[in-house]
Amino acid sequence: MRLAICKGVPPLFNNIRNLYIDKEKVKIVEDVAIGFLDSITSFGTLTGKVGDVEPPTAILWVYHFLAQHFDYLRDCKRAMEFIDKALDHTPTLIEAYMVKARIYKHGGDMEKAADCMDEARSLDTADRYVNCKCAKYQLRANQVQKAEETCGLFTREGVAAAENLNEMQCMWFQTESGYAYKRLGKLGEALKKAHEIEKHFDEITEDQFDFHTYCMRKMTLRAYVRLLRLEDVLRSHKFYFKTAKLAIECYFRLHDKPLVSSNENAVTDTSKLSPKDLKNLHSKERRKEKKYQENKKDSKEKKENDKKADVLKDPPLDADLLCRVSDPLDQALKFLRPLQNLASNRIETHLLAYEVFSRKSKRLLMLQSVKRAHTIDPNHPTLHEHLVKLAVKVSESTDMKESISAVFERELKTLLGRKDMKQFNADFLEENSRSLLHRLSGCRMLCLLDPTKVDDALALITDLADNLEDRTLENCTLIYNTLLEGTFGECSDLTREYFLKCRSLFPLASVFSKYDGATGSLNGVDATLSDRSEPLCDGVV
């Protein structure tokens, strides 16, 4: 560490970050770094009273390292103090602005994080890495237009940045854009990005046919075999998984709250509709969509030039059409099937499958999804909710065939550990008493099984004791949004009290800056339990 600080090595923290697995080593690293700071402040050296005087930049890199150290420990206040000292020492250090942006991101203020990263970008406009990082932060802050302008500095002139990035198959940008549009409620634009990425994977599959004859002609058989193996598992790539998850969640929203006009932001709340009214609404929407597509087709046929162009290339994706589909669940299944085949080792795949089949009332497929998820992580909080809900649904069913009922009875008895639902949920809460996420899932099911236990559930999920293992900003935001949405009924006083607790714990978080009774998102990731698989940052924890 001493040599790296003397030389001014910016990635020093990343080089030793693997030591942070051990808490004792974390304490040692902190003591050494604080010792360096005290020594260089008092004597101008890193070795105490004896030793050579260090260059003026040495203290800068000590500040830089300590800021990253405390940011990793999520002590945002101390991290901000050290990075501000580093910027006071050298206001033109790009790395310092990037660290400050990361501190704001982990602290929960994505807009300020994007501003700091943009400041870093402005100090070196020729740096592509910082440019891309700035664009990603802007997308996480839902600033899609600014992000396109930022990327436009390095794309082809005369062509829109989004169009050029699509041609270059820049999937990270399209994925982040899709999630930004989803958070903004623009489901059509989000689905457009998802389908664009789907087309990229189709093109990769089609391009392999040009490679077959080349490999045989040049006798590059090893590369040929690698290509064939890649094509077999192409859609197991992380970009496809994130894209499929985005599309499926958008289709869930379209199913739960169908669009009622050409304006994609105009949705109707179906939670208060009866099954008959909901069916009529879907039928009405299908008729509207059919008429809309016919009018669209007629207008296109009148233009001969457009007709010829359509023969040569695929028609452009229409965001309005994508969000007005009559069968959102069937569309979601198209993205789900590749995940079930190629990403079956991820529990999120089976949790999404359960959500699809639950909306389609496919009980056996719901059971299949629960069983597959149970083999991966039987203690997952979302799986616990799905399992209890499935057991409740089966117990309340009166139209189930005897053979199917026998299957459910046998399988649920195994999954529930031969316990009744209330005891199963009580044991789950007791075994995971130090986890906020497990508490939240257990309390939701507690209220489902016994509505009189709402007060007990609220007391449990709003308890922010120091011994909790996952008392993070993300989890606290999730619980706060759950309280605001009324999942546990009217509890405005308790919600405000919980808000004040969280604001004292996370002073930088924008979601806890002002109590206005509105749900918020964090770090560019929707604060919902289904989104817990999404990373909150890229490359740096």
Automatic annotation (TrEMBL):
It holds the Pfam family NatA_aux_su. The keyword Repeat applies. Residues 274-283, 291-312 have a biased composition (Basic and acidic residues). InterPro entries: NatA_aux_su, TPR-like_helical_dom_sf. One of its GO terms (cellular component) is NatA complex. PANTHER family: N(ALPHA)-ACETYLTRANSFERASE 15_16, ISOFORM A (PTHR22767:SF2), N-TERMINAL ACETYLTRANSFERASE-RELATED (PTHR22767). Residues 264-273 have a biased composition (Polar residues). Residues 264-312 are annotated as: Disordered. The keyword Cytoplasm does not apply. Keywords: Repeat, TPR repeat. This is N-alpha-acetyltransferase 15. It comes from Acropora cervicornis (Staghorn coral).
